[in-house]
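2.7 Reproducibility. Because tokenized structures are sensitive to small changes in the input, we list the exact sequence used for NtA domain-containing protein, including any N-terminal residues retained from the expression construct. No trimming or masking was applied before prediction.
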Amino acid sequence: MASQRTLRTGRAALLLAGLLVVPLLPPCAASCPEKDLEDREEEANVVLTGTVDEIFNVDPVHNTYYCKVRVWRYLKGKSSINREILLDGGNKVTIGGFGNPRICDNQVATGDTRIFFLNLDPEAVGPDHKNELMLNSSLMRITLRNLEEVEHCVEGKKP
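Resulting structure tokens (single pass, no recycling of outputs):
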């Protein structure tokens, strides 16, 4: 009987300790705050939907990489995409900035389809990096609701 009482007391102590510690931990979202969708869209020169075809130029020190992305649809900024940016007959682009610690959701795998918020790379140096696109903010999963919200932002309407 005494062992059951000790066991119950131990469980109660663990439960109490957990209840006291959990409120002290920061919420997951607070560790990587994301701007409002309207601000993200406004700051991006190009917004497109696409599928990751290839991952390359992986930097093992900084954990950053580039992707070749098959473009399905431009939601914003198609006119700012010139021929130097387009690859493989004009339906693919190279995007950098994956793994950037300043961008919350920035990890992809081959075959992932996402909404990309992009800008021309202001730090691109040399002919090999001319006109590269870089992630400007977190990726978004493709859902009907997300597509509608981004389209409304691009059109300047309230979602």
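The chain has a mean pLDDT of 81.
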